[in-house]
Amino acid sequence: MASILPPDLIKRGWQTLHDNVEGLVPGNGSLTPRFILVGEAPGETEVTTHKPFTGRAGVELDKSLSALGVTREEVFITSAYRSRPFRIVTKTAKRTGQTYQKKDNRPPTQHELISQAFLIDYELAHLPTDLILTIGNVGLKRLLGPKYRVGDVHGQFFSGPIRCYDYQQQKFVPTKRHYRVMPTFHPAAVFYNRKIESDLTRDLAKFKQQLQSEGQ
Prior knowledge:
The protein is an alpha/beta fold. The chain has a single domain, classed as 3-Layer(aba) Sandwich (Uracil-DNA Glycosylase, subunit E), CATH 3.40.470. 33% of the residues lie in helices and 23% in strands. It is built from eight helices and eleven strands. It has helices at 7-14, 44-49, 56-68, 110-115, 117-126, 137-144, 150-153, 197-213; strands at residues 21-22, 28-29, 36-39, 76-79, 84-92, 99-105, 131-135, 158-160, 163-166, 171-174, 179-184. The chain has a six-stranded mixed beta sheet with strand order 2-4-3-7-11-8. A three-stranded antiparallel beta sheet has the order 1-5-6. Strand 5 and strand 6 (99-105) form a beta hairpin. The longest helix has 17 residues, at 197-213. It is globular, with a radius of gyration of 17 Å.
């Protein structure tokens, strides 16, 4: 299990942090993976362990990987944004009624995604596989574009270039390399919406068929 990012890019990634962002979690896994899994961003646990999907969502992810017949050691896990974006919210303690402040996860902004685009662009360009599973909307939109929604296109395969960011042109451009991308729901989404559980199961079964058809 390793990161493919060179030290200078990791250092550059740390330099993108600002007040409402913390930590930096490089992608991690096999450097000859059966496929690449692209999520949204690290959470509270991940920025402590410095490994992707080690929080509560990681338990659900492991179930999904098991359904695919693979282990973490056989895939490469990364995310559209590599730091934890958060907002400060005020909560009320149930027992005491006292209010307190805590950090809540939030989706990364477009500006944040662009600021760290070079990290995932490097990983996807240098890993040998072209097969990608995106989980959730953020990873999907980062690779295929803002018009895509996981609720509309989950379980479908898209073949062709994906988006990478050109800092000279200051815009996303298509990659020269072609990839095969299948979007599905974030495993943790079943915590909040049990209705998508059957969709997720069918999506994973379809992705598993693809792996098996390639003799992987």
